[in-house]
Fold this protein.
Amino acid sequence: RTCLRQARKCCPGRNSQMRRCPAALKKGNNSVSRDPLLKVYGHIYPVDREFYDALARACADALPDETDIPVIEMDGDMARFSFEGAYFPVEETLEALAHGLKPEHKGKLDVLDLEGWRLTRHVFEAGRIKSSSASLNNVLDYSGH
């Protein structure tokens, strides 16, 4: 397989959450009915328009199963993430978050990798991102429910 973006082996350095690059998936037939490979849910607040726009740009390459459902949306001063599909740009989104994160921001981003059967939680607090991961088999113990 060759990455259509940069004519090299498929996106070296990308994490295991994707099997093909976003450009390859967009060019190919991605309309096959299947369960989503990834689910991403989260929020961050308070968010101004500039920070929200940066997050929206970071999420632009996401490949959701339902294209009529927004990946990110504003709800007052909160940005909400809601995604199910083949590819979500986690690293790009975390970079945008790290760049705009201030001590007053609070929130989280949960990434459920259904293929790797893991939950990775990124918590935003006090101007920092703290990430941890656990098997989905232990998710209730892990998430504090």
Summary: The chain is about 20% helix and 35% strand. The beta strands are 38-45, 63-64, 72-75, 78-87, 106-113, 118-125, 128-135. Helices lie at 22-27, 49-58, 90-100, 139-143. The mean pLDDT is 81.
